[in-house]
Amino acid sequence: MRIIAIVQARMGSTRLPNKVMLKVGKDLTMIEALLLRLSRSKKVDKIVLATSTDIQNQTLVNHVNQLSYDTYKGDENDVLGRYYKAALKYKADVIVRITGDCPLIDPDVIDSVIKKYESNFFDYVSNINPPTFPDGLDVEVFSFSALKTTWEEAKTLAEREHVTLFMRNSGIFKTENVTSAEDYSNERWTVDELEDYKVVKSIFEYFSPRIDFGWSEILQLRKLRPDIFLVNQHLVRNEGGGTGTGQKLWKRAKKIIPGGNMLLSKRAEMFLPDKWPAYYSKAKGCRVWDMDGNELIDMSIMGVGTNILGYGHTEVDKAVLKAVQFGNMSTLNCPEEVYLAEKLIDMHPWADMVRLARSGGEANAIAIRIARAASGKDKVAICGYHGWHDWYLAANLKDIQGLDSHLLPGLNPTGVPQDLKGTTLPFRYNHFEELLDIVNNHDIGTIKMEVQRNEPPKDNFLEKVRNLATKKGIVLIFDECTSGFRETFGGLHKKYDVEPDMAIFGKALGNGYAITAIIGRQEVMEAAQSTFISSTFWTERIGPTAALKTLEVMEREKSWEQIKNTGKNIKEGWQQLADKHEIPIIHSGLSSLPVFTIASENALVYKTLITQEMLDKGYLAANSVYVSTAHTVEKIDKYFEILDPLFALIKKCEDGYNPSSLLKGDVCHAGFRRLN
Predict the structure, then answer these.
(1) How far is Cα 548 from Cα 476, in angstroms, rounded to an integer?
(2) Are strands 3-8 and 595-598 parallel, antiparallel or unpaired?
(3) Cβ contact 461:427 at 8 Å
(4) Helix axes 58-66, 30-38, angle to 10 degrees
(5) CATH 3.40.50.2300 for the 252-310+560-662 domain, yes or no
(6) Cβ atoms of residues 20 and 100 within 8 Å
(7) 100-111: per-residue pLDDT in tens?
């Protein structure tokens, strides 16, 4: 019986790149330490390093070959196939699986698992199901026959990536587990993170020049020098085996990017902490592929509402590619900005002039600058969400809770000049008396508000605001970054027949490409010339080109009618499930941006539970949907088919079962809660 240990290792670790080549001693790499310790096994006949054909692994291959060990290079993504072909090449009867992140692997532990395998003709034996040994002493032993069957039968991406996943879970193999006398599973001796490396390096340095120390000696060192082992104690055991590439990259990102990414709304904690895939490899229609190649249906925020026509719309992308081919930037101006301005004015006859930008936040800031210049007054009354700039967050200088009803509870305006205190004054939607009080007691030059977010206007609210602004000579700005093109071809204000002095569009305007627009009356917009508003990349060609083609497709297909009707159907579907299972829910949002909330003290737990279970079924979903034309009837029907038993489960929880016990991780964060 030929027993071959196959060590799985590569240079492209997501969390700690090139870790296997890091030094754990003066002239000792981590992979060399592992191989030397593994070679002390009395049961293993041969050691082979299995890596991928990726060019970056050639350094590793050369290093291992110089150490006189064999290597095998296979498919980067199909690790299972890599194992099978390596075992086939070296004529293995039995395979011992070791991963390259375990430099403290113990030969005695390896031999004990092999002996258990030999004792009763098992197909698979390990010491990880459940684990009782320290993390980093993981050993799996299985027959070539079991590996061959697994290679033939395993189909999912996870099963191809995690070699023994199918073997452990299929139920067709005879399996066994080896346990230690005591449970040491909380000990972390593997190397996934920088903190892990520091611990392992310290262990090798302590025992140097010896490398043949056993795991019992490491436990003794733990008692003598607990400080060494405290460095990585906050990390979770065996994360890599059940965690996708996106989750790993998110943890890496949070160490080098404040908050982890560039947009609070896309942070993993907003959806499913530690479990959300976080990053995508490609997107088309309403389908998204994560970094491990898993296809997911997006019944969630659809790029935060940027893609009304779905991801990767063929016509829009074709127009953009042509623009790139012809040159995106030049000393001269792109003509598309003129064509786009004309188109927006044609859609909104009350408007005379246009300024373009590339993000909603900067468009809001531009509009405020222009409005202040036009009115000659600094103070702004606001309602709704309008970005991150100083002028907006200044609302919280006077009252830290000033923006709590505007989706931003708990935002500390640190870094916003104190001199801006009292310049931005918030009022709540449909509370005209609050606005009236602000206007009567402050020298307001601008009123800035969303036309509608969670609830429609009541008691002629918009008309009252318009009349007040006209009477007082105040510039009225409608922020339509979110609401634009969702219920009308243009601004939502067209639905209510109330015209502002300025309006702002973003998100859906370019169907995923960066473009925003500020439109307004000539007497207001010309004030832009009395101040300074300018940016190099507002002159690039891609944004206006994408917007022109997006508007063309929208107008031809009447996309706003499609997504509005789809959104209404989704709302009705939620309500039908709620009625069926006797669960009280609250609806909010535009028809094309439907939201439901379960009326329960556990509402956030239920949102997390839905996200968790829907993700397992291949859906990005929670309690809201940014509807696109790519959301077909078939996809929505399937969505509700999966959602139905989840509502039944929530009903069970409302009747007394603990919902938190169903979660595999932490509860998601609420709303726009700030993350530190």
Answers:
(1) 27
(2) unpaired
(3) no
(4) 40
(5) no
(6) yes
(7) 999 999 999 999
